[in-house]
Prior knowledge:
Layout (H helix, E strand, L loop, with lengths): L2 H8 L2 E18 L5 E20 L4 E5 L13 H15 L7 E6 L11 H15 L4 H7 L7 H6 L3 E5 L3 E4 L7 E6 L6 H6 L20 H8 L7 H7 L2 H11 L4 E4 L6 E5 L2 H14 L4 E6 L7
Parallel strand pairs: 3-4
Antiparallel strand pairs: 1-2, 2-4, 2-5, 5-6, 7-9, 7-10, 8-9
Amino acid sequence: MDALAAHRAALGGAVSAPAKVNLALHVTGRRENGYHDLDSLVVFARDGDHLTITPADQDQLTIEGPFAAGLPLDRGNLVLRALDLARSLAARVGIDLPPVHIHLQKNLPLSSGIGGGSADAAALLRWIADAYPVLADRLSAECLSLGADVPMCWAGRAARVRGIGEVSAPVARLGRFAMVLVNCGAPVSTPAAFSGLERRDNPPLPALPAGGFADLEQLVSYLRDTRNDLEAPALRIVPEIAAVSRALADEGAAFQRMSGSGATVFALFENTSQADAAATRLRTRQPHWWVAATEIQPMGEA
């Protein structure tokens, strides 16, 4: 077996694409090129999509799962565009990436403000970086070209994210806080949410505590002084977001807010037992909603 054949035989594996949650999202400006400057507190959930990569004779993407319907299987899918980016960067250093079959288990709702395609693309790039460490720095530097959310999903850690998504400072400390994610089933277009902003020069986030967030009370206290500036325009597109927030508040959430451009709402709970019980009741009362009881990943495990 030659070296390339041996490498292809070993090539393969599985990687997770955890949901990205914006605990706070301030829109602080707009650039001449149309991109918005953001200041956001980003965390990652325990749960998300999953990719399985295996050797193949030619590149192939297959998708299954509760939200597979309607996703493109060609270069319209961000996962395959991420693969093209990796191939281009690999070629510059003399690496010929062999063809692969990427199987995507799509568990997260589409156009929902929790990462989605960006998380999937970043997961593939992380897998390639693990297989070819020489490409890691190049992939990290170039992944912004795939979208503003991809760099933060590549990092996969709780962080304050600024600029258009390329400036990231890790949170010093974060516990494994219980969380429920709820989506009413209506997609929100990110460009539509941004176009509905009444103001684009909002104040930034307050300074994060130097020691991070030791407990849920400290995190909630901080979040009460923050906003999601995209929530108001998203509510005009999907008014049911308000009903989701009220339902989570009625379940005793310590804090709830829409994530990203919507329509998913996150809620923080004291413990996993409370989160699980709230999710079970919500699924019973609102069977058309997508409901996931999960946790914020502690530092270094996303």
